[in-house]
Amino acid sequence: MSQQITTITFFRFGHLSSKFWAFKMMQFAHKPLQKTQGQSFYKLMGSGKDLGFNPWPDWSVYSLLQVWENEAAADQFFQTSLIFKKYENQASTIWTLYMRNSKAHGAWSGANPFTVSTSLDKNILPVAIITRASIKVSKLAKFWSYVPTSEKPLKSNKELLYTKGIGEAPIIQMATFSLWSSMEAMKAFAYGSKEHQEAIHKTRKLNWYKEELFARFQPYKSIGQWDNLDLNSILK
């Protein structure tokens, strides 16, 4: 029985000096992160402005995605890790979401890091989605020209609790994290949005990804606060 869990942590940096520190850590944080016990996969990422995929960086927000052997390993990292303590000292806001995977297909850096959990709770309604793509250089112009159209329905969707574009490298290696009020709400967008359906059609027709991954999660614990999200009341 798999005890694997996934965490995603968002950091916000308010001052110019802390933003510069966070930018530097995109290079220097990897060595300590690679040595983390109980961690099978991680990605330290920057973010884009506004919704979903966005080529323009948001220098104030960074994210850390980690896959753990079990929850105890995650707790140990957040409580004792020296590198995480440094982030705590620099960030003005930190939010960590604990999640269990319910579906995953595709690859990230050559493999699928997520294992479907056997401990899902049918009473938890919110759904988290991570989509990730490595875009072919020859397809960049066509891809980015359609992104604003495909994401237009998100702006007025009241069932979308939060979304943020994240990624390892601007323009080419992009991902999105989105949090929905329920599975039904997420599916209504995925199958009901003409713009989203057209994006799927173009993806298949134009083959603009070198590598892509879709992963769905059940969030079950939230630590910290982010904007106006009050997830603890929703997850209880």
Structure description:
With 236 residues, the protein is α+β, with helices and mostly antiparallel strands. It has one domain (5-235): Alpha-Beta Plaits (2-Layer Sandwich). It has eight helices and eight strands; from the N terminus they run βααββααββαββααβα. The protein has helices at residues 16-28, 30-34, 71-80, 82-90, 140-151, 183-192, 194-206, 231-235, and strands spanning 5-12, 39-47, 61-68, 93-106, 127-135, 160-169, 173-180, 209-224. Strands 1-3-2-6-7-5-8-4 form an eight-stranded antiparallel β-barrel. β6 (160-169) and β7 (173-180) form a beta hairpin. The protein is globular, with a radius of gyration of 17 Å.
Which properties best describe this structure?
eight-stranded antiparallel β-barrel; 236 residues; Alpha-Beta Plaits; 35% strand; alpha+beta; 8 helices
Helicity level = 25-40%
Gyration radius, in Å: 17 Å
Distance between the termini: 25 Å
The top-level CATH class is: Alpha Beta
Q: Structural class, judged by helices and strands?
A: alpha+beta
Assign the CATH topology: Alpha-Beta Plaits
